[in-house]
Amino acid sequence: MKVQLTLYAKNLPNVAGVFKGTSDPYAVVQKLGEGQTPVNVGKTEVVKNSLDPKWTKRFVIDHDLGRPTHLSIAVYDKITKGEDKPMGSAMFNVGNILGAKGNIKATRMKGGGIMYAKVQKYEEGGTLRLQLKAVKLQSTEGLGFGVLSKSDPFYELHRQTVDKKGWDVVYRSQPVKNNLNPIWSEADIDISTLCRNELNTPIKVKVWDWEKDGKHVDMGEFETSVSGLVAAKNFSSTMDINRADLASAFTLTKIGSRRDRGQIVVLRADLVGVDGAKPELTKPTKPREAPEPAAAPTTAPAPVAPSAPAYDPPPAAPPAYVPPPSAPAAFVPPAADEPPPFVPPPSAYNPSYAAAPAADAPPPFVPQNPVTIEPSSSPYAPFVPPPPQPTFVDYVSGGCELNLAVAVDFSASNGDPRKLGTLHYFNRGGVEKNDYEKAIAAVGGVLAEYDSDKKFPMWGFGAKFGGQIRHCFQCGRETEVDGIDGLLFSYRQMFKTGLAMSEPTVINDVIKTAAYRAKSALGTAQMKGSQAYTILLILTDGQLSDVNDAAKAIYEVTDTPLSIVIVGLGGGDFSGMRYLDKLKRDDRGIVKFVPFNDHMHNMQSLSAATLDEIPDQLVGYFLAHDIKPNPPVQQHDDDIAIDDIDSGMDYAFGGGGYDGGDIVL
């Protein structure tokens, strides 16, 4: 998927030198590949005389959920004659930014200052080719009369924030020196960046008088839309050439003043790469008299999403078994139609596959009503393409949380963890992780970025406590553990509880428990105006006692906000796991199986392979239930936590065959 990166900084060090004014910073962005080889992404424009630059340049970055994308940001002071001076540097992880509130992160820079990075959705939307001309601007020089010198005007384009409470600058032209009737150069502006591909959404055009010290002077502004710019250009071209300039011009004004500050003429406003973009114009009944400016086109009011239906929470979920107390009542969710039976391959691996009885289907989820978008009322509006389908980034930007749950196979087929070469074997030196720990750290580490509280439930299956087999028991003393290090610690501690690694290997209960939590989490989130989606990570050697029973459990929970990732450890027969991977109901599949050994030497490859289907599964579930993404969360600078330099953690913990019988530890 493609995302859009923007940068700004605060409190940069001034490296210009004594008596040389203030630095002129620009930023260089590099992307670090898997081998940490930097790849140039691009650089921002230079902001003159500023230690708090807000760059308008937007960078388009390719990012996959399971593959960490690291960015190196270096800031330099532009030196006209000589070598540019470094001002500071910072590192960001795109997944970490996406998972943060408001999709924005801040970190202290090596060298001084604070760097802010914001990641937003990007989608192809064509280009606006724009050229503007100003007429009779009011000078801000020479007592306002421009007697000794005239202003050096430039303009900015601002788009409205999603909450409609502010504006973000997205484009800045070059100044035209000493001219009150400037004609600015043509500019190609990405429509997705300018207006999120919504041609009728408000934009602001603001004109400034450029000053060397960076304290530019306001010369006026006006509001319109991309449709308004296109209509103004097209209408002026239909008028008499002697009146065309001002017939559809926009009038500049300043806040708190009704006095005209000049006019802006649209010389060119062409939509390039937008299907059906040619506007259908309606001729006005009366020609407008010059120099009366045309009113900016009216934009359609923003649709108001209906309130979510009242959520009737289900009865409390039965808790997972906490050793050594007795087990809670088994969780029994409603069943559904049966999946096709699994046909095992002809081999020595051929356990019994018994079918589970069918039951009534679960009640359907009650979705929100779809939003109705009113058509534009502008008589000059060009054709507006239908809105694109929501994406994973839309849901995450709107505050949807990914809740991680982890289930670990403690069955005897994994081998005695005290023996070298078995799957649960611990390196006594505490240096190297075993394969279970590597998978938890790699896959869980990526998903943890999208969970705000970093607390995860961890369950086990396939072990006995007090002589009784448990197919879903709690790992650790708390229902949720803290972060990835908490998962790893709880996993290791289970081997000190007196459990007996046993058989059969059954994953049904952890699947049903995860599905119950997923549906409850979404319901609770919706009552708070938010959204939630759950991912169950199952780590197993793949030797399930009854694949058809597991398939039946998966079939029953397919219509819940849940994805299941199964990582197969060891070199066993994974044909049953591959069958579960292909299982679908109503064209929706929720299982992704990946053999650990295929990626054992590249943990980034493992996380990428296991998580690549989750974005589509999440979007598919929400769209099927008419749940639209919430508007992007807005975050004020004062509310953004600032990371320290190199604050990232390395979750480093140290780190066969089965011939039957329990393994008692």
From TrEMBL:
<dbReference type="InterPro" id="IPR045052">
    <property type="entry name" value="Copine"/>
</dbReference>
<dbReference type="InterPro" id="IPR037768">
    <property type="entry name" value="C2B_Copine"/>
</dbReference>
<dbReference type="InterPro" id="IPR035892">
    <property type="entry name" value="C2_domain_sf"/>
</dbReference>
<dbReference type="GO" id="GO:0071277">
    <property type="term" value="P:cellular response to calcium ion"/>
</dbReference>
<dbReference type="InterPro" id="IPR036465">
    <property type="entry name" value="vWFA_dom_sf"/>
</dbReference>
<feature type="region of interest" description="Disordered">
    <location>
        <begin position="277"/>
        <end position="319"/>
    </location>
</feature>
<feature type="domain" description="VWFA">
    <location>
        <begin position="403"/>
        <end position="618"/>
    </location>
</feature>
<keyword id="KW-0677">Repeat</keyword>
<dbReference type="GO" id="GO:0005544">
    <property type="term" value="F:calcium-dependent phospholipid binding"/>
</dbReference>
<feature type="compositionally biased region" description="Basic and acidic residues">
    <location>
        <begin position="277"/>
        <end position="291"/>
    </location>
</feature>
<dbReference type="Pfam" id="PF00168">
    <property type="entry name" value="C2"/>
</dbReference>
<dbReference type="InterPro" id="IPR002035">
    <property type="entry name" value="VWF_A"/>
</dbReference>
<dbReference type="Pfam" id="PF07002">
    <property type="entry name" value="Copine"/>
</dbReference>
<feature type="domain" description="C2">
    <location>
        <begin position="1"/>
        <end position="108"/>
    </location>
</feature>
<feature type="domain" description="C2">
    <location>
        <begin position="111"/>
        <end position="239"/>
    </location>
</feature>
<dbReference type="InterPro" id="IPR000008">
    <property type="entry name" value="C2_dom"/>
</dbReference>
<protein>
    <recommendedName>
        <fullName>C2 domain-containing protein</fullName>
    </recommendedName>
</protein>
<comment type="similarity">
    <text>Belongs to the copine family.</text>
</comment>
<dbReference type="InterPro" id="IPR010734">
    <property type="entry name" value="Copine_C"/>
</dbReference>
<dbReference type="GO" id="GO:0005886">
    <property type="term" value="C:plasma membrane"/>
</dbReference>
<feature type="compositionally biased region" description="Low complexity">
    <location>
        <begin position="292"/>
        <end position="302"/>
    </location>
</feature>
<feature type="compositionally biased region" description="Pro residues">
    <location>
        <begin position="303"/>
        <end position="319"/>
    </location>
</feature>
